[in-house]
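re the bet — no i am not wrong, look at it urself. input seq straight from the record:
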Amino acid sequence: MAFVEGKIEEERLFGGVVFPKTLFPSNAGEDLAIAVAKERNRLSKVLKEHGAILFRGFDVGSAEDFSRVVEAFGWDEMGYVGATTRVKMANRVFSANEIPLDQSINFHHEMALTKEYPSKIFFYCFEPAPLGGETSIVPSNVIVEKMEEQMLKFMEKVSDIGLIFHITRPKEKIQGSVDNSWKCLLKTDDVVEAEKRVREKLSCTSVKFNNDGTAKFTYGPVNPVREFGGKKAWFLPILGYSENKKGVDISFGDGSDISREAIDAYKGILEENCVDLKWKKGDVLLVDNLTIQHARRAGRPPRAIYVSICK
Protein backbone atom coordinates (compact mmCIF):
# COMPACT_ATOMS: atom_id res chain seq x y z
CA MET A 1 0.00 0.00 0.00
CA ALA A 2 1.38 3.39 -1.03
CA PHE A 3 -0.20 5.39 1.80
CA VAL A 4 0.02 5.47 5.58
CA GLU A 5 -2.77 7.10 7.56
CA GLY A 6 -1.57 10.00 9.66
CA LYS A 7 -2.75 12.86 11.86
CA ILE A 8 -2.32 16.60 11.91
CA GLU A 9 -2.79 18.89 14.87
CA GLU A 10 -5.55 20.88 13.19
CA GLU A 11 -7.88 17.99 12.31
CA ARG A 12 -11.41 17.69 13.70
CA LEU A 13 -13.92 14.90 14.29
CA PHE A 14 -17.47 15.16 12.95
CA GLY A 15 -19.73 12.23 13.77
CA GLY A 16 -16.65 10.16 14.52
CA VAL A 17 -15.17 10.88 11.07
CA VAL A 18 -11.80 12.64 10.94
CA PHE A 19 -11.60 15.84 8.90
CA PRO A 20 -9.49 16.09 6.83
CA LYS A 21 -8.07 12.61 6.26
CA THR A 22 -4.26 12.81 6.18
CA LEU A 23 -2.17 10.36 4.16
CA PHE A 24 1.61 10.05 4.24
CA PRO A 25 3.87 7.98 1.96
CA SER A 26 4.52 4.39 3.06
CA ASN A 27 8.08 4.58 1.75
CA ALA A 28 10.60 7.39 1.40
CA GLY A 29 10.63 8.77 -2.12
CA GLU A 30 7.13 7.48 -2.94
CA ASP A 31 5.86 9.14 -6.13
CA LEU A 32 2.43 10.60 -5.34
CA ALA A 33 1.18 10.48 -8.93
CA ILE A 34 2.08 6.79 -9.28
CA ALA A 35 0.58 5.99 -5.88
CA VAL A 36 -2.65 7.75 -6.79
CA ALA A 37 -2.92 5.91 -10.12
CA LYS A 38 -2.67 2.59 -8.26
CA GLU A 39 -5.24 3.44 -5.59
CA ARG A 40 -7.53 6.05 -7.08
CA ASN A 41 -10.70 3.98 -6.56
CA ARG A 42 -9.91 3.68 -2.87
CA LEU A 43 -9.05 7.36 -2.67
CA SER A 44 -12.39 8.31 -4.24
CA LYS A 45 -14.14 6.39 -1.45
CA VAL A 46 -11.98 8.10 1.18
CA LEU A 47 -12.86 11.50 -0.27
CA LYS A 48 -16.58 10.70 -0.22
CA GLU A 49 -16.39 9.67 3.43
CA HIS A 50 -14.13 12.43 4.76
CA GLY A 51 -14.77 15.35 2.39
CA ALA A 52 -11.09 16.29 2.18
CA ILE A 53 -7.76 14.45 1.90
CA LEU A 54 -4.38 15.95 2.75
CA PHE A 55 -1.38 14.29 1.10
CA ARG A 56 1.72 15.25 3.08
CA GLY A 57 5.36 14.20 2.94
CA PHE A 58 5.48 13.39 -0.76
CA ASP A 59 8.06 14.92 -3.09
CA VAL A 60 5.81 17.25 -5.05
CA GLY A 61 8.29 19.96 -5.86
CA SER A 62 6.82 21.82 -8.82
CA ALA A 63 3.66 22.76 -10.69
CA GLU A 64 4.52 20.01 -13.18
CA ASP A 65 4.68 17.43 -10.37
CA PHE A 66 1.31 18.65 -9.13
CA SER A 67 -0.11 18.40 -12.66
CA ARG A 68 0.88 14.71 -12.78
CA VAL A 69 -0.95 14.11 -9.49
CA VAL A 70 -4.12 15.75 -10.81
CA GLU A 71 -3.96 13.73 -14.03
CA ALA A 72 -3.48 10.50 -12.08
CA PHE A 73 -6.97 10.76 -10.59
CA GLY A 74 -8.51 10.60 -14.07
CA TRP A 75 -11.16 13.26 -13.57
CA ASP A 76 -12.07 15.66 -16.38
CA GLU A 77 -10.66 19.17 -16.31
CA MET A 78 -13.01 22.10 -15.82
CA GLY A 79 -12.50 25.67 -16.95
CA TYR A 80 -12.70 28.46 -14.39
CA VAL A 81 -15.49 31.04 -14.54
CA GLY A 82 -15.05 33.98 -12.19
CA ALA A 83 -13.72 37.49 -11.69
CA THR A 84 -10.34 36.35 -10.41
CA THR A 85 -7.50 36.28 -12.93
CA ARG A 86 -5.61 33.00 -12.67
CA VAL A 87 -2.19 32.44 -14.22
CA LYS A 88 -1.51 29.07 -15.84
CA MET A 89 1.48 27.41 -14.16
CA ALA A 90 1.37 23.98 -15.84
CA ASN A 91 -1.12 21.71 -17.55
CA ARG A 92 -4.41 22.00 -15.56
CA VAL A 93 -2.61 24.02 -12.87
CA PHE A 94 -3.25 27.70 -12.09
CA SER A 95 -2.40 30.30 -9.46
CA ALA A 96 -5.10 30.54 -6.80
CA ASN A 97 -6.19 34.22 -6.85
CA GLU A 98 -4.98 37.79 -6.92
CA ILE A 99 -6.51 39.13 -3.73
CA PRO A 100 -3.69 40.64 -1.62
CA LEU A 101 -2.48 38.29 1.11
CA ASP A 102 -3.19 40.81 3.86
CA GLN A 103 -6.90 40.25 3.17
CA SER A 104 -8.84 37.13 4.08
CA ILE A 105 -11.19 35.31 1.70
CA ASN A 106 -14.48 34.18 3.22
CA PHE A 107 -15.83 30.63 3.12
CA HIS A 108 -17.44 29.56 -0.14
CA HIS A 109 -17.97 26.74 -2.61
CA GLU A 110 -15.99 27.28 -5.81
CA MET A 111 -18.07 28.78 -8.66
CA ALA A 112 -21.30 28.36 -6.69
CA LEU A 113 -23.06 31.04 -8.76
CA THR A 114 -22.37 29.40 -12.12
CA LYS A 115 -24.58 26.92 -13.94
CA GLU A 116 -21.84 24.32 -13.92
CA TYR A 117 -19.51 24.13 -10.93
CA PRO A 118 -16.59 21.82 -10.10
CA SER A 119 -17.12 18.73 -8.01
CA LYS A 120 -13.53 18.64 -6.76
CA ILE A 121 -10.70 21.08 -6.10
CA PHE A 122 -7.00 20.38 -5.70
CA PHE A 123 -4.76 22.78 -3.79
CA TYR A 124 -0.97 22.53 -3.88
CA CYS A 125 1.50 24.36 -1.67
CA PHE A 126 4.53 25.45 -3.66
CA GLU A 127 5.55 28.01 -1.02
CA PRO A 128 3.86 28.42 2.38
CA ALA A 129 3.47 31.89 3.86
CA PRO A 130 5.99 32.72 6.61
CA LEU A 131 3.04 33.73 8.79
CA GLY A 132 -0.68 33.02 8.37
CA GLY A 133 -2.08 32.32 4.92
CA GLU A 134 -3.81 29.12 6.01
CA THR A 135 -6.45 27.53 3.81
CA SER A 136 -9.53 26.88 5.91
CA ILE A 137 -12.09 24.16 5.24
CA VAL A 138 -15.43 23.32 6.85
CA PRO A 139 -18.12 20.70 6.13
CA SER A 140 -21.18 22.44 4.69
CA ASN A 141 -23.59 19.93 6.23
CA VAL A 142 -22.32 20.92 9.68
CA ILE A 143 -23.19 24.55 8.91
CA VAL A 144 -26.74 23.53 8.01
CA GLU A 145 -27.12 21.34 11.12
CA LYS A 146 -25.83 24.02 13.49
CA MET A 147 -27.96 26.75 11.88
CA GLU A 148 -31.04 24.55 12.25
CA GLU A 149 -30.17 24.08 15.93
CA GLN A 150 -29.48 27.75 16.64
CA MET A 151 -31.67 29.64 14.14
CA LEU A 152 -34.62 27.36 13.37
CA LYS A 153 -37.12 30.11 12.48
CA PHE A 154 -34.58 31.73 10.18
CA MET A 155 -33.93 28.39 8.47
CA GLU A 156 -37.66 27.74 8.06
CA LYS A 157 -38.07 31.13 6.40
CA VAL A 158 -35.08 30.48 4.14
CA SER A 159 -36.62 27.15 3.10
CA ASP A 160 -40.02 28.75 2.56
CA ILE A 161 -39.19 31.87 0.52
CA GLY A 162 -35.46 31.58 -0.23
CA LEU A 163 -32.88 34.34 -0.49
CA ILE A 164 -32.15 36.93 -3.16
CA PHE A 165 -28.54 37.80 -3.97
CA HIS A 166 -27.85 41.16 -5.66
CA ILE A 167 -24.26 41.65 -6.83
CA THR A 168 -23.26 44.91 -8.51
CA ARG A 169 -20.02 44.92 -10.50
CA PRO A 170 -18.20 47.81 -12.21
CA LYS A 171 -17.34 47.53 -15.90
CA GLU A 172 -13.62 48.15 -15.32
CA LYS A 173 -11.26 47.29 -12.54
CA ILE A 174 -11.18 49.94 -9.84
CA GLN A 175 -7.63 51.17 -9.28
CA GLY A 176 -6.05 49.78 -6.14
CA SER A 177 -8.57 46.95 -5.74
CA VAL A 178 -9.06 43.39 -6.92
CA ASP A 179 -10.60 43.10 -10.38
CA ASN A 180 -14.26 42.43 -9.59
CA SER A 181 -15.52 43.85 -12.89
CA TRP A 182 -18.13 42.25 -15.12
CA LYS A 183 -15.66 42.69 -17.97
CA CYS A 184 -13.24 40.35 -16.16
CA LEU A 185 -16.00 37.96 -15.13
CA LEU A 186 -17.47 37.61 -18.62
CA LYS A 187 -14.26 38.18 -20.61
CA THR A 188 -15.87 40.83 -22.83
CA ASP A 189 -16.79 44.52 -22.66
CA ASP A 190 -19.60 44.23 -25.21
CA VAL A 191 -22.99 44.35 -23.50
CA VAL A 192 -24.77 42.15 -26.05
CA GLU A 193 -22.08 39.48 -25.84
CA ALA A 194 -21.99 39.85 -22.06
CA GLU A 195 -25.73 39.18 -21.79
CA LYS A 196 -25.26 36.06 -23.93
CA ARG A 197 -22.45 34.79 -21.69
CA VAL A 198 -24.53 35.47 -18.58
CA ARG A 199 -27.29 33.21 -19.96
CA GLU A 200 -24.75 30.53 -20.88
CA LYS A 201 -22.58 30.47 -17.78
CA LEU A 202 -24.24 32.05 -14.75
CA SER A 203 -27.20 30.90 -12.68
CA CYS A 204 -28.54 34.42 -12.13
CA THR A 205 -32.20 35.13 -12.81
CA SER A 206 -31.50 38.53 -14.35
CA VAL A 207 -28.77 41.05 -15.15
CA LYS A 208 -29.14 44.78 -15.70
CA PHE A 209 -26.44 46.86 -17.37
CA ASN A 210 -26.71 50.38 -15.98
CA ASN A 211 -25.95 53.73 -17.60
CA ASP A 212 -23.03 54.30 -15.23
CA GLY A 213 -21.30 51.20 -16.61
CA THR A 214 -22.09 48.91 -13.68
CA ALA A 215 -24.06 45.71 -14.00
CA LYS A 216 -26.44 44.31 -11.38
CA PHE A 217 -26.69 40.52 -11.23
CA THR A 218 -29.70 39.05 -9.41
CA TYR A 219 -29.81 35.46 -8.17
CA GLY A 220 -33.01 34.02 -6.76
CA PRO A 221 -35.16 33.77 -4.84
CA VAL A 222 -33.23 30.56 -4.20
CA ASN A 223 -32.63 28.23 -1.29
CA PRO A 224 -28.90 28.44 -0.43
CA VAL A 225 -29.06 24.90 0.98
CA ARG A 226 -28.71 22.03 -1.49
CA GLU A 227 -28.26 18.29 -1.17
CA PHE A 228 -25.46 16.22 -2.69
CA GLY A 229 -25.10 12.49 -2.11
CA GLY A 230 -27.46 12.53 0.84
CA LYS A 231 -25.65 15.41 2.56
CA LYS A 232 -27.06 18.91 2.93
CA ALA A 233 -24.70 21.72 1.93
CA TRP A 234 -24.95 25.46 2.56
CA PHE A 235 -23.98 26.10 -1.03
CA LEU A 236 -24.58 29.85 -1.44
CA PRO A 237 -22.88 31.64 1.48
CA ILE A 238 -24.45 34.71 3.07
CA LEU A 239 -21.12 36.46 3.53
CA GLY A 240 -19.33 38.35 0.78
CA TYR A 241 -16.45 36.63 -0.99
CA SER A 242 -13.87 38.99 0.52
CA GLU A 243 -13.71 41.48 3.36
CA ASN A 244 -14.83 44.19 0.96
CA LYS A 245 -18.59 43.55 0.76
CA LYS A 246 -19.33 46.62 -1.38
CA GLY A 247 -21.78 45.78 -4.13
CA VAL A 248 -23.21 42.69 -2.41
CA ASP A 249 -26.76 42.74 -1.04
CA ILE A 250 -28.57 39.65 0.28
CA SER A 251 -32.16 39.59 1.51
CA PHE A 252 -35.05 37.18 1.91
CA GLY A 253 -37.13 36.30 -1.14
CA ASP A 254 -39.79 38.83 -0.09
CA GLY A 255 -37.19 41.61 0.13
CA SER A 256 -37.00 41.71 3.92
CA ASP A 257 -33.62 41.99 5.62
CA ILE A 258 -31.61 39.14 7.10
CA SER A 259 -31.15 39.73 10.81
CA ARG A 260 -27.77 40.53 12.31
CA GLU A 261 -28.37 37.64 14.69
CA ALA A 262 -28.53 35.17 11.79
CA ILE A 263 -25.37 36.57 10.18
CA ASP A 264 -23.49 36.41 13.47
CA ALA A 265 -24.67 32.84 14.11
CA TYR A 266 -23.55 31.79 10.63
CA LYS A 267 -20.11 33.39 11.09
CA GLY A 268 -19.72 31.87 14.53
CA ILE A 269 -20.55 28.37 13.26
CA LEU A 270 -17.95 28.71 10.51
CA GLU A 271 -15.24 29.74 12.95
CA GLU A 272 -16.13 27.12 15.56
CA ASN A 273 -16.13 24.18 13.12
CA CYS A 274 -13.45 24.94 10.54
CA VAL A 275 -9.96 23.53 10.15
CA ASP A 276 -7.22 26.08 9.46
CA LEU A 277 -4.70 24.07 7.49
CA LYS A 278 -1.15 25.20 8.16
CA TRP A 279 0.59 24.54 4.86
CA LYS A 280 3.88 22.71 4.41
CA LYS A 281 5.78 22.83 1.15
CA GLY A 282 4.68 20.01 -1.15
CA ASP A 283 1.28 19.50 0.48
CA VAL A 284 -1.59 18.51 -1.80
CA LEU A 285 -5.14 19.00 -0.52
CA LEU A 286 -8.09 17.40 -2.33
CA VAL A 287 -11.51 18.83 -1.44
CA ASP A 288 -15.04 17.77 -2.35
CA ASN A 289 -16.41 21.09 -3.59
CA LEU A 290 -20.02 19.93 -3.29
CA THR A 291 -19.86 19.30 0.46
CA ILE A 292 -16.94 21.40 1.76
CA GLN A 293 -16.51 25.18 1.90
CA HIS A 294 -13.04 26.68 1.77
CA ALA A 295 -11.52 30.04 2.71
CA ARG A 296 -8.17 31.77 3.11
CA ARG A 297 -6.72 33.44 6.18
CA ALA A 298 -4.73 36.63 5.87
CA GLY A 299 -0.97 36.21 5.97
CA ARG A 300 2.39 37.56 4.99
CA PRO A 301 3.96 37.08 1.58
CA PRO A 302 5.48 35.28 -0.14
CA ARG A 303 2.90 32.52 -0.54
CA ALA A 304 2.26 30.34 -3.58
CA ILE A 305 -0.77 28.04 -3.61
CA TYR A 306 -1.79 26.50 -6.94
CA VAL A 307 -5.18 25.05 -7.82
CA SER A 308 -6.82 22.67 -10.23
CA ILE A 309 -10.55 22.10 -10.59
CA CYS A 310 -12.41 19.07 -11.93
CA LYS A 311 -15.90 18.46 -13.28
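see?? Helices lie at 32-50, 63-73, 140-150, 152-161, 182-186, 191-201, 260-273. told u. also Residues 32-50 form the longest helix (19 residues). so pay up
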